[in-house]
Amino acid sequence: MWAYEKKLQYPVNIKNNNPKLAQAIIDQLGGPDGELAASMRYLNQRYAAPYAQVKGVLTDIGTEELAHLEIVSAILYQLTRNLTIEQIKASGFDTYFVDHTAGIYPAGASGMPFTAAYFQSKGDPVTDLVEDLAADGAARLGRPLKNYRNSYPYYMK
Amino acid sequence: MNTNTNAAGNGSMSAFPAETPVGMCYVPFQQWETPYAENIALERGTMFPSLDLPFCGKEGSCRERN
Amino acid sequence: MNGTNLMRAIQMYDFYLYELNLYLDTHPTDRKALDLFKKYTEMRTAAYDAYTSKYGPITAEQSSTNERFNWVDDPWPWERSAN
Predict the structure, then answer these.
(1) CA gap A116, C79 in Å, rounded
(2) What is the rounded distance in angstroms from the CA atom of residue A4 to the CA atom of residue A2?
(3) Contact A146, B64 (CB under 8 A)
(4) A107 forms bridges with which residues in the sheet?
(5) Contacts with C40 from chain B: Cβ below 8 Å
(6) Does C19 sit within 8 Å of B11, measured CB to CB?
(7) Do B44 and A146 count as a contact with CB atoms less than 8 A apart?
(8) Distance in angstroms between the alpha carbons of the first and the last residue of chain C
(9) CA-CA distance, C72 to B32, in Å (whole number)?
(10) Is A113 helix (H, G, I), strand (E, B) or coil?
(11) Percent of chain C scored above 70 by pLDDT?
(12) Which of A62, A122, B35, C10 could staple A127 via S-S, CB 3.0–4.6 A?
């Protein structure tokens, strides 16, 4: 089972809204290399783990990815408060807004809804590990959540 | 089955196994190192300096420190 | 310490403990990591108790039982005022 703690793993306090930035960051929520895909990947693959250490590490990493998911959602929430119609149109956020208004919906930056097709679970621990390595490399390319503040300039350039 | 305890019981298995057949890929087994302090660890996203590998928006393995 | 600073301390200790947890998952007999895990668990518990006694529950069972179920009170973690 899982228990909820009423706190973020890393604080999020964003002064100015920015729907354009939100549209890029949402990839970390419901995109192909986002936190939801990461969490589901590890939490489903753990049943094929042959050793206690592997069961443990997949369970604990899959759980931590859910904490990351919540950080990303908090960023998106704060970036999309109090938007004006003009802001929504000018930023290109209108394509998201027409489907979800400012609700948090797990989709990628291109608007593609989250799908379990983004990850694999093959019942073989070595095969799964190779898939995990590819996913971790891709997630690093997308932006390191660990240093999400460092990634802002990258997106804004 | 405890696969990663050495004779001294300190869990310091070597980075790679003695036998590494071709056609497989391997992840080096993490070795203990002096960790960051807790305030630095939270800011860097890891307590281990060797895992502190941010992406800087460029190709290659940029190891920016700030 | 005020509530924000206490929460920062908890977030710092919790992250450190989670990192140690993941390391210990694959190195369960590493004595340096075990010692740090014990040390930071104690520091985390102290900060956690100080926070929840003054600023509200982090888990539902810490909600004050007498007058009001304050688990449900704002702010929730994604709101700016919680950070």
Answers:
(1) 29
(2) 7
(3) no
(4) A113
(5) 38
(6) no
(7) yes
(8) 15
(9) 42
(10) strand
(11) 98
(12) A122
C64 has pLDDT over 60: yes
Degrees to nearest 5, angle at CA C66 with C65 and C69: 50
- What tokens appear for C4 in the block? 């924000």
In 3-state terms, chain C is what percent helix, strand and coil (to 5)? 70, 0, 30
Confidence of residue B26 (pLDDT cuts 50, 70, 90): confident
- For the segment A53-98, what is each residue's pLDDT rounded down to a tens digit? 999 999 999 999 999 999 999 999 999 999 999 999 999 999 999 9
Phi, psi of A107 (to 5 degrees): -135, 165
Report the 10 Å Cβ neighbour count for B2. Answer: 11
**Helices marked H in A80-124:** 85-91, 94-100
Q: How far apart are CA B46 and CA C18, in angstroms?
A: 10
Cα separation, A118 vs A135, whole angstroms: 9
Scored b (16 or more CB within 10 A) or e, A106-120 reads bbbbeeeebeeebbb
Residue B53 Rama label (left phi>0; alpha psi -120 to 50; beta): beta
What pLDDT is recorded for position A140? Answer: 65
Q: Which one-letter DSSP state was computed for residue A117?
A: G
| Ranges of each domain in chain B | 33-58
* Among the partner residues A52, A133, A147, nearest to B54 by beta-carbon distance: A147
Q: At a CB cut-off of 8 Å and minimum separation 6, what does A24 contact?
A: A109, A155
- Return the pLDDT at A141: 63
What CATH number belongs to A19-156?
Answer: 1.20.1260.10
* Residues near C41 by beta carbon (within 8 Å), at least 6 away in sequence: C17
Token pair 């924000």 is found at C4
Residues 12..51 of C with a Cβ closer than 8 Å to B: which?
12-13, 15-16, 19-20, 23, 26-33, 36, 40
Residue C10 has which token pair?
Answer: 């908890």
Please state, in angstroms and rounded to a whole number, the distance separating the CA atoms of residues A116 and A132.
Answer: 14
The domains of chain A are located at 19-156
